[in-house]
Design brief:
flat, Receptor-associated Protein, mainly alpha, 13 helices
């Protein structure tokens, strides 16, 4: 037990020293000189502005994730997939993938180290401690992925519920004489307090159109950023209406009616699922309590009667 305790202490100490060295080590003179030369050769003041506005957490996360990047470098397909998932979750920063990898590394190392320290302090046997450490490693591996999936599904739900209101407002704006670009701006401004996610996506689309990107491409980017099927259908409908010269107001009105019907059907489906989801809590918590309250006095009377016999 003493050897196990000393080994765990040495492992945790070396791990903390390695993390500290990776996070706070000063850059070498050659690296600093190359960085200054790259900043000096940049075009205009844009590199310095980007360097000032970059959050400090990005550099810290990059240092933490550097060992994982060297040990398990992600492929191009995995990097694109991770970037797309983070974008759908609402994280569009260039440092978001590095931060996610840093969280993965901390989760993979932190949970097993904490469990190993706890098992050593409690005096657990080696077999039981090894089982707990492996379980904590799997938990640390799955936790960031699960949280990312939950963030994506939550944002998809908010976008889906806000899209119907956005389309109603868009129909009113287009029928009032505004163009599609102006209607996107108006919808983004009006829904900023109620549905901030859909408002932000519309504002980004309008900014892409303003900087010179084609409307079709900007709308496709909207569907790609969100990953919501309803928005994909809306984008396809708007592109077809714009390409063939049909009335955008009439097309948006028809699609808004169908989307409102679909939202009502989803609400009815969720209400039907609620009865099935309540079976497990009722069977596990409510029914045993009722049985104890109803049959408890009778059971006590039977115990007294058989005790007197």
């Amino acid at each position: 037990m003493l050897i196990i305790t000393i080994s765990i202490f040495v492992f945790v100490t070396l791990g903390v020293m390695a993390v500290y060295w990776l996070m706070f080590r000063p850059p070498s003179a050659a690296t600093e000189r190359l960085r200054r030369m790259g900043d000096a050769e940049g075009a205009g003041p844009a590199p310095s502005v980007a360097l000032v506005e970059e959050p400090a957490a990005g550099g810290l996360a990059e240092r933490v994730a550097a060992p994982l990047q060297r040990l398990v470098p992600p492929s191009a397909a995995e990097a694109r997939k991770l970037q797309k998932q983070l974008m759908q979750a609402g994280y569009r920063s260039s440092t978001a993938p590095v931060t996610y990898r840093a969280v993965q590394l901390v989760s993979l190392v932190g949970f097993p180290a904490a469990v190993a320290t706890g098992c050593a302090l409690l005096g657990r046997p080696l077999d039981s401690a090894l089982l707990w450490i492996v379980g904590s490693f799997l938990f640390g591996f799955m936790l960031p992925r699960y949280i990312l999936k939950r963030l994506i599904s939550g944002r998809h739900l908010r976008l889906r519920w806000g899209l119907a209101d956005a389309l109603d407002l868009m129909v009113v704006s287009i029928e009032a004489g505004l163009g599609l670009n102006a209607a996107l701006v108006r919808v983004g401004e009006e829904l900023r307090a109620v549905h901030p996610d859909i408002s932000e996506e519309f504002e980004i689309t309008n900014l892409e159109i303003r900087v010179g990107r084609e409307r079709d491409e900007a709308l496709r980017n909207l569907a790609e950023r969100t990953g919501v099927d309803d928005l994909r259908s809306l984008v396809a409908m708007l592109i077809q209406a714009d390409r063939f010269g049909t009335s955008i107001a009439k097309a948006v009105r028809v699609y808004a009616d169908s989307l409102r019907t679909k939202r009502r059907q989803r609400a009815e489906q969720a209400a039907q699922k609620a009865a099935v989801k309540l079976l497990l809590p009722l069977a596990c918590f409510l029914f045993p309590t009722l049985f104890i309250a109803i049959l408890g006095p009778a059971a006590l009377n039977l115990i007294d009667t058989f005790g007197k016999m």
